[in-house]
Design brief:
- By secondary structure, the protein is α/β, with parallel strands linked by helices.
- The protein has 14 helices and 13 strands.
- Helix 5 links the parallel strand 5 and strand 6.
- Helix 9 packs across helix 10.
Length: 350
């Protein structure tokens, strides 16, 4: 059965998924029995398209590449233009909404409202926006369950690296009592360069020149990005309610060459660690720069990679590492959520 998709937002991540669906169409059909048809796209800046029989992805991507908008997409019979995001969600014939809009992480909007509209319309959602998951996890999970739809958000923590799916599937049966992770590649890159002798300022400037850090790097270097991610992990993996405000947060901007040298003499290395620990039915979480012993798996994570260690009662510590960002990598996180939904649908139908 064809899986009909509507994209809300069509920036870098949305285009990354579209390219994967175009390039891997045949192999996904052959290996997974998965066929996706993009029926709608609604982007605040680029415009909107809807055709119930599906859009031509090649033409969509060509239009965006050539003009930066969807305006040059061929006008065909049955094509609808001009719908806003909520119209697209409610009125299109999509099975699943791919929510990749620009969202204010502090409020989770407009993505929270997009999720509400989708669930109430009987549509699944896959997304990469951290804010809605961290801020409205309980509400949106309950709403999806009430309407019998799925909600996938693998890409909110470590892009396509399965930080959420792995513990739930392959560590099932374990009690995960603690999570510790390097959940921000920008700060890990900066700390690596400082460990190699650069100043904080020079390392930050290099990270910005390479595209790892934004012009305003506050969210990364002050630990705010990692704080949202540890909240998602605590709620989804540990099943523990936790708000962003409950997480003590301190970044790396106060670290100096003297701090780096002191850690080196003690056989340690500075890392920005996000952690959550479960004890006596409660969870405590924090984000802070820590001196990590060199025999800790997290100490060897270099560059812009991410990594996470799950402390389990049956296996002990289990560490996963991989990309935490990137166009294709984050696009893949949406794909694996879509495949999971498709597999579940096939199971129900069989």
């Amino acid at each position: 059965m064809t899986h009909k998709l509507a994209f809300i937002g069509f920036g870098v991540v949305g285009q990354g998924l579209a390219e994967i669906l175009r390039n891997k169409r045949q192999s996904l059909q052959e290996t997974e029995g998965f066929e996706a048809k993009v029926v709608a796209i609604s982007d605040f800046k680029k415009g909107s398209l809807y055709h119930p029989e599906g859009l031509d992805l090649e033409a969509v991507l060509d239009s965006v590449q050539e003009t930066g908008t969807l305006d040059s997409y061929p006008k065909t019979d049955g094509l609808v233009t001009g719908w806003d995001s909520l119209q697209t969600i409610r009125q299109s014939n999509a099975d699943t909404i791919v929510e990749v809009s620009y969202t204010d992480v502090k409020t989770g909007q407009p993505a929270i409202d997009h999720c509400r509209a989708a669930f109430e319309s009987g549509k699944n959602v896959v997304m990469t926006n951290k804010g809605p998951v961290a801020l409205a996890y309980q509400e949106l999970s309950a709403l999806a369950k009430k309407h019998g739809v799925s909600w996938g958000f693998e890409g909110t923590v470590m892009s396509g690296t399965p930080a959420l799916r792995m513990p739930q599937l392959t560590l099932a049966g374990n009690d995960i009592t603690e999570i510790r992770g390097i959940l921000n590649g920008t700060t890990n890159f900066i700390l690596m360069r400082m460990d190699e002798g650069e100043s904080y300022e020079a390392a930050l400037e290099e990270a910005q020149s390479l595209g790892y850090a934004e012009a305003d790097p506050t969210s990364d270097v002050e630990g705010l990005d990692a704080r949202y991610k540890i909240v998602i992990l605590a709620q989804h993996v540990m099943g523990m309610p936790l708000s962003v405000e409950d997480v003590d947060c301190e970044g790396i901007s106060q670290l100096t060459a003297e701090h780096i040298e002191q850690a080196r003499t003690e056989g340690k290395r500075w890392k920005l660690i996000a952690s959550a620990k479960k004890e006596n039915g409660l969870v405590t979480a924090k984000v802070a720069a820590e001196q990590v012993s060199l025999d800790d798996p997290l100490a060897s994570i270099s560059g812009a990679l991410n990594a996470i260690t799950y402390e389990t009662d049956l296996l002990g510590p289990v560490t996963l590492s991989g990309a935490g960002a990137g166009k294709t990598e984050t696009g893949f996180s949406l794909l694996i959520d879509l495949l999971t939904i498709a597999r579940a649908r096939e199971t129900v139908q069989s």
